[in-house]
Amino acid sequence: MKEQLKTYFNRYVSLSDNEVENFLSNISIKVFNKKDCLLNQGDVCHQRFFILEGLVRFYEIDDKGNERIDLFGVENWWITNLESFINETPSRQTIQALEKTKVLCINKTTLESLFESIPKLERAFRIITENMLIAIQRKDEVYMKQKSKERYSSLVNNVPRLFQRVPQYMIASYLNITPEYLSEIRKNS
Amino acid sequence: MKEQLKTYFNRYVSLSDNEVENFLSNISIKVFNKKDCLLNQGDVCHQRFFILEGLVRFYEIDDKGNERIDLFGVENWWITNLESFINETPSRQTIQALEKTKVLCINKTTLESLFESIPKLERAFRIITENMLIAIQRKDEVYMKQKSKERYSSLVNNVPRLFQRVPQYMIASYLNITPEYLSEIRKNS
DNA sequence: CTACCTTCTTAAGGTATCTTAAGAAAAACT
DNA sequence: AGTTTTTCTTAAGATACCTTAAGAAGGTAG
Question: How far apart are CA B97 and CA B90, in angstroms?
Fold first, then answer.
């Protein structure tokens, strides 16, 4: 686990063993079973989670009671509701484990004090946030510009593994299509 | 101008006069006329721009030759093609001035060396990036979940000033609606 | 093995939105 | 003031996608 984290951070900055130890001593590990929620809609998100193993979804429920999935989180991703985390406002979204999921948890004040003591960690988070921004902009490019059928094939081409781990109706929700129409699309392709 | 920048950064971190001076001595100022491009599709984006005065749009052209506006940049916003800037890959988007626009320009290596010499500046950019991420997630919430009519009224309510500065067909593009249909929506509301 | 629950498919009819085409209005030049 | 260019509107017909409803298939639990 220490190795996994070190390898991960070394993509962005070089942390010494000491710094990794310091980081680790400030975080906790939690395991969520399938269907458990890491964060409930309405609650303030006090933590950032780093997914060691497993899979989660970040979703919201609209006025008609339909779920809409914004994002899946897999191994080696940080996940949180950033708006709720930063402003300490109630989350409009839920984060739920879709498999048994093991995460690192770090809360806001701890993270801020770690940024003081390990500046390279703040750099890593600056870069990680930039990468998240790029990822969401890329998703938008696809989703704003393309029709359902094309969004579906983008996903098939870019993240084929997802289809083995997630039921099709959740893929549909993530693609912003009804499950019925996704079924239709798949029949004709 | 120095004051504008100082006020801006002080939202996030407290920079001393010296640090602001240091920052200023490393940047340049440019003025773009209406319709000038800050960045052309196909070019690598080597700079980040801070808008002192004016208005720009960030847009791309799809396969059918239609423009799609991702984002407007107004006073006190940083704008860049982050993906192109970070990976040094050709930009799929163009950044164009919609009014006479005065910007600060800072290039990548300069910014990185400033991060070394002024750690608080890196913190400011970490926070600025987080806020951009939140803004884009909020936009997505509206755009994925809501129908055209609702997207239009969200924009009217949240950024009414935009309508005085931008032609309606660009609003339509930003809302991901055809100009004809936006016209229809406005008629019935 | 049977029963239940979750997920996926099919099809008919409806609606939001686009496409095309044309003209009106407004703004920008000369 | 007149001409050109840009922007906005209107309307008819097309299409992508949704809604509803029902049943099929597959998994899980008693």
Answer: 20
Nearest CA in chain B to A134: B83
> What's B2-120's CATH class?
mainly beta
In angstroms, the CA of A183 and the C1' of C22 are apart by: 40
Residue with tokens 């400011």: B124
Answer for the pair B31, B100: CB distance below 8 angstroms, yes or no. yes
Position A66 scores a pLDDT of: 84
Predicted local confidence at residue B186, as pLDDT: 97
**Hey, which residues 135-174 in chain A have their CB within 8 Å of chain B?**
136-138, 140-141, 143-145
Give the long-range contacts of residues B167-172, CB within 8 A, separation 24 or more: B170/B57, B170/B69, B170/B98
Protein-proximal nucleotides of chain D (any atom < 7 Å from a CB): 6-12, 16-21
DSSP string, A105-166: EEEHHHHHHHHHH-HHHHHHHHHHHHHHHHHHHHHHHHHHHS-HHHHHHHHHHH-TTHHHHS
Question: Mean pLDDT per segment of 10 residues, for chain A of length 189 residues?
Answer: 91 94 95 93 97 96 85 96 98 95 96 96 98 96 93 95 95 97 94
